[in-house]
Specification:
Helix content: 40-55%
Number of helices: 15
Low-confidence stretches: none
CATH superfamily of the largest domain: Type I PLP-dependent aspartate aminotransferase-like (Major domain)
Distance between the termini: 21 Å
Largest sheet: 7 strands, mixed
CATH architecture of the largest domain: 3-Layer(aba) Sandwich
Strand content: 5-15%
Structural class: alpha/beta
Bound molecules: pyridoxal-5'-phosphate
Radius of gyration: 21 Å
CATH class of the largest domain: Alpha Beta
C-alpha cells in the first residue's frame, strides 16, 4: 500500500532529521539505548488493570514484578512514601490529583499560563475539566519566581482545597515553604507539578518539593527525566494516596501502557547511578548557554540572578522578530525549540508570543558541555541576529551535531543479553 510506504518513509525521515538537529525543546528528551531496547517488547500488547498482584486480567506474572521494581525504585529515588506509575500522561496525573482533593465548584489555586503554568494546571485544561474555580498565584515578573507574600494573600482569600505549584516555565524554585504555611492556615493540600524538572529533582538539583512542604507530586517522566513518555504520582502521606489511587484506576486509566515499565526501571536505575552528574551538568549548561546568548545581544531573562537554576533559558525575542519568526527561522537551520508566552503577554497571544524557551537536557545527554553551549549560541546568533541564510547555518549545525551522537549518563546496552525478539 502506498500509504504504508509513505508512513515508513516519513518515520525514517523524521528519525534521521531529528538525529542531526540541535534539539532544544525543553519538554523533550531521549531514552537510553537500553531503556529504548526494553520498550520494544511484548508488554506493549498486553493489558493490566489494577495493582500488581491484584489484577483483573491473567498473564501478568512477569509484569507484576517489573512494576513492583519500578515502584520501589521511584520511592527510593524521590524519597517518597508511595509512588504510582500508572498515569499515562502528565495531564492525567494532574487530573487524578485534582479529582482526589477537589470537587467541581471548589476553589483551586495555580499559576496562570503566562506566569508559567502548564495548560493542565489551568482553567482551560484539567482544572477546568474538573470544574474548579481557579485563582492565580502571583509571579514576580522581574525575579521570575512566585511572589510569596502575594501568593499567601491569594491563598488566604480564596481558601482553596488544593494549591498546584510547579509549572512548565520554571527558571527558579517556587517558595514552597511559604506556600505551605498559607496552605496549613486554610486547610489546603499543596501539590507540585514537577513534569519539567523531575530529572533535576532526581539528580538533587533545583528543589526537592517533598522536603520543602509539598505533599503530593505529579509529573510526566519524559522531560528532564529521560524515561519513556508517561507520568507518575508520588507523595509523603499514604492517606492521600488512598484518595488518589481510585482516581487513577478505575477513574482515568484502565490499561497503563505496560511497555513503559521495564524502560522505566532502566531509567530509574540510571538516574540513581548517573542522575547527579547529569543534572549538575544540565544546570551548568543552561547557565552557560544563557550567558553566551546574552553576550551576543539577546534579551535573556533574569541576568541579575544568573539567568536560570533549571534546564531552561527564556529569551524575550520581541525585538528581533518575535517568538514565532525566531522559532520558525531556527527550525529551518535545524535548531529546534519552541515559542513561548512571557509573563507580560496576554494569553490570547499564544500564537504570537514574545518569547522563546530553550531546554538543554537532550543535548546534555548527548555529551555537550559549556563549550558546546557557546557554539550553539553562536549558531542561533547567526540565524536570528545576523540574519544569515538558515540553510547555511543548518549545514554547520549538522556538522557540529555529528560529534554528539552517543547518549551519556546511562548503561552500556551491549552489556546485557536479550533473549527475546520483537515479533
Ligand atoms: C508537560 C507537562 C504536563 C503534561 O504532560 P503530558 O505528559 O504532556 O500530558 C503537565 N504539567 C506540566 C507542568 C508540564 O510541563
Amino acid at each position: 500500500m502506498e500509504e504504508v510506504e509513505k508512513a515508513v518513509q516519513l518515520t525514517g525521515s523524521h528519525n534521521s532529521w531529528r538525529s542531526t538537529c540541535i534539539n532544544l525543546i525543553a519538554s523533550e528528551n531521549v531514552m537510553s539505548p537500553l531503556a529504548w531496547r526494553l520498550y520494544n517488547c511484548d508488554f506493549e500488547h498486553r493489558y493490566a488493570e489494577g495493582m500488581p498482584g491484584k489484577r483483573f486480567y491473567q498473564g501478568l506474572e512477569y509484569l507484576d514484578e517489573v512494576e513492583l521494581l519500578a515502584i520501589d525504585m521511584a520511592k527510593r529515588l524521590f524519597r517518597a512514601e508511595y509512588a504510582d506509575l500508572r498515569p499515562v500522561s502528565g495531564s492525567l496525573a494532574i487530573l487524578a490529583i485534582l479529582s482526589a482533593f477537589a470537587k467541581p465548584g471548589d476553589p483551586y489555586v495555580a499559576p496562570s499560563v503566562p506566569a508559567g503554568a502548564h495548560i493542565s494546571q489551568a482553567e482551560f485544561g484539567a482544572a477546568g475539566i474538573r470544574g474548579l474555580e481557579t485563582h492565580h498565584l502571583v509571579l514576580d515578573e522581574k525575579e521570575m519566581t512566585l511572589d510569596a507574600e502575594k501568593c499567601k494573600k491569594v491563598i488566604r482569600d480564596a481558601r482553596p482545597k488544593l494549591i498546584n505549584a510547579g509549572g512548565t516555565v520554571l527558571l527558579f524554585p517556587h517558595p514552597l515553604e511559604e506556600l505551605r504555611e498559607a496552605a496549613d492556615e486554610v486547610g489546603s493540600i499543596l501539590t507540585y507539578d514537577a513534569s519539567h524538572v523531575l530529572g533535576l529533582i532526581a539528580g538533587g538539583e533545583f528543589q526537592d518539593p517533598l522536603r520543602e512542604g509539598a505533599e503530593v507530586v505529579g509529573a510526566s517522566h519524559h522531560k528532564t527525566f529521560p524515561g519513556p513518555q508517561g507520568a507518575l504520582i508520588f507523595g509523603s502521606n499514604p492517606d492521600h494516596y488512598r484518595k488518589i489511587k481510585s482516581k487513577i484506576f478505575p477513574g482515568l486509566v484502565s490499561n497503563h501502557h505496560l511497555h513503559r515499565l521495564p524502560a522505566l526501571v532502566v531509567t530509574l536505575a540510571e538516574m540513581l547511578e548517573f542522575g547527579r552528574e547529569y543534572a549538575a551538568q544540565g544546570v551548568k549548561n543552561s547557565r552557560a548557554l544563557a550567558q553566551a546568548l546574552y553576550e551576543r545581544g539577546f534579551d535573556v531573562l533574569c541576568e541579575h540572578k544568573g539567568f536560570t537554576s533549571s534546564h531552561q533559558v527564556i529569551v524575550d525575542v520581541a525585538g528581533v522578530g518575535g517568538g514565532t519568526w525566531v522559532a520558525e527561522t531556527l527550525e529551518k537551520a535545524d535548531i529546534i525549540l519552541n515559542k513561548n508566552l512571557l509573563p507580560w503577554d496576554d494569553v490570547s497571544r499564544s500564537r504570537e508570543p514574545s518569547g522563546i524557551r530553550i531546554g538543554i537536557q537532550e543535548m546534555t545527554r548527548f555529551g555537550m558541555k559549556e563549550k558546546e553551549m557557546e557554539t550553539i549560541a553562536e549558531l542561533i546568533e547567526r540565524a536570528v541576529i545576523k540574519k544569515e541564510d538558515p540553510a547555511a547555518v543548518g549545514a554547520d549545525v549538522r556538522e557540529f551535531r555529528q560529534d554528539y551522537s552517543r547518549i551519556k549518563y546511562c548503561y552500556d546496552a551491549t552489556n546485557f543479553k536479550y533473549e527475546f525478539n520483537v515479533i
